[in-house]
Specification:
This protein is α/β, with parallel strands linked by helices and about 350 residues long. The protein has two domains: about 5-140 and about 325-335, 3-Layer(aba) Sandwich (Rossmann fold), CATH 3.40.50.10770; about 175-320, Rossmann fold (3-Layer(aba) Sandwich). About 40% of the residues lie in helices and about 25% in strands. The chain has 14 helices and 14 strands. It has helices at about 10-15, 35-45, 65-75, 90-100, 115-125, 145-155, 160-175, 210-215, 235-245, 245-250, 265-275, 280, 295-305, 335-345; strands at about 5-10, 20-25, 50-55, 80-85, 105-110, 130-140, 180-185, 200-205, 220-230, 255-260, 285-290, 310, 315, 325-335. Strands 1-14-6-5-2-3-4 form a seven-stranded mixed sheet, sandwiched between helices. Strands 10-9-8-11-12 form a five-stranded parallel sheet, with helices on both faces. Strand 11 (about 285-290), helix 13 (about 295-305) and strand 12 (about 310) form a beta-alpha-beta unit. Helix 6 (about 145-155) runs antiparallel to helix 7 (about 160-175). The two termini are about 20 Å apart.
Length: about 350
């Protein structure tokens, strides 16, 4: 199944029909942010027409990766523009122009935040821009296996002392920021009905304060907590790690635990759809917290497009520590626009 969707980009080069393209990507600090612009630029030749690079506010924090991405784009793409990630009107206007002259739009989400993915996809679809999604896996992710081993050992010795050990390790390893804040963009507030109870569907994350910030901001009568399960065998231990980090949230009732694979957005959308058969959810205001993998975020977006009455909330670290993030990269995947439209219709 994974050889079919998402496509590996080698498959896309074989079916692209020699159509020029624009690549839209973010200038983030992860190594894998360079993968798509390097691969598409070097392999596509004259088909690589234009690059749109989105800047985050803290430019210095994304160096030297930001400059490397820009240099690669300048080398392989005849034209390029650098826009801010907050100015989506200019981004959309540029994509409209490129589509009108017959170019394919490729959107690389590898270095995009989850809230940016939602906002960008929503704006692109509102403008009737047909875009394909590009995503590159990292080679190494944080927290790493050593962090997991230490936490697992602490859990085996003292289940009640696990959280103390987690906070000790987190502050030592500096994984993300200890503090997070909630974002609740107006376009994703949904249509909650007064008097109804609220249910949270949340993807568990390795930074527990991201979910805790949401739990503090809203009151929920029930929770469905989704455990991300890596597809890669070398990362299988990360499923148990996220359960250890969030074990008390899983154990606290009312809560229901689900498990979803990390790489197939259409499976995610289908599974989220099945949750609506739940009698409690059908009579509740639903809040969705897409804190999982990037592809799970895509699946969450497709689900929300099918049900815009659902409220979507995000949480962001107040500060990122790029030294303790992902390193290097592996395969790059691509999802075709027709498949996206099929999933939401």
């Amino acid at each position: 199944m994974m050889e079919v969707y998402p496509y590996k980009i080698e498959t896309w080069f074989a079916i692209n029909n020699d159509r020029p393209f624009t690549l839209l990507l973010s200038a983030g600090f992860e190594d894998r942010g360079k993968a798509a612009v390097l691969c598409f630029g070097s392999k596509a030749g004259q088909l690589a027409s234009h690059a749109i690079i989105l800047d985050y506010q803290d430019l210095e924090a994304n160096e030297p990766n930001r400059s490397e991405i820009i240099n690669i784009a300048q080398k392989h793409f005849p034209t390029m523009e650098i826009l801010t990630s907050t100015d989506l009107e200019k981004v959309i206007a540029s994509c409209v122009k490129r589509q009108q002259i017959g170019e394919t739009i490729l959107v690389d989400i590898s270095s995009m935040s989850r809230v940016l993915i939602f906002k960008l996809f929503n704006a692109l679809m509102a403008a009737d821009i047909h875009f394909n999604i590009v995503y590159t896996e990292a080679e190494h992710y944080y927290p790493d296996k050593q962090f997991y081993d230490k936490l697992k050992s602490a859990y085996n010795m003292d289940k009640m002392g696990l959280l103390d050990k987690y906070h000790e390790l987190e502050e030592t390893e500096v994984i993300y920021s200890y503090d997070s804040y909630v974002e609740f963009p107006k376009e994703f507030k949904g249509r909650p009905e007064p008097g109804r109870s609220s249910v949270l569907i949340a993807f568990l994350t390795y930074k527990r304060s991201r979910l805790q910030a949401i739990l503090r901001a809203f009151e929920f009568s029930n929770r469905i907590l989704i455990v991300p399960e890596p597809v890669r065998q070398d990362l299988s231990w990360r499923k148990e790690l996220v359960e250890l980090i969030n074990f008390d949230l899983i154990m606290n009732r009312p809560a229901e635990k689900k498990t979803l694979l990390t790489l197939d957005p259409f499976l995610v959308c289908k599974e989220l759809e099945s949750y609506l058969d739940n009698a409690v959810l059908s009579k509740s205001n639903i809040y969705l917290a897409p804190l999982g993998s990037k592809m799970q975020t895509v699946g969450s977006f497709l689900f929300w497009k099918r049900h815009p009455e659902i409220s979507v909330t995000f949480s962001q670290p107040k500060r990122y520590f790029k030294e303790k993030f992902s390193e290097k990269w592996r395969d790059t995947f691509l999802i075709m626009y027709d498949r996206l439209r099929e999933a939401i219709e």
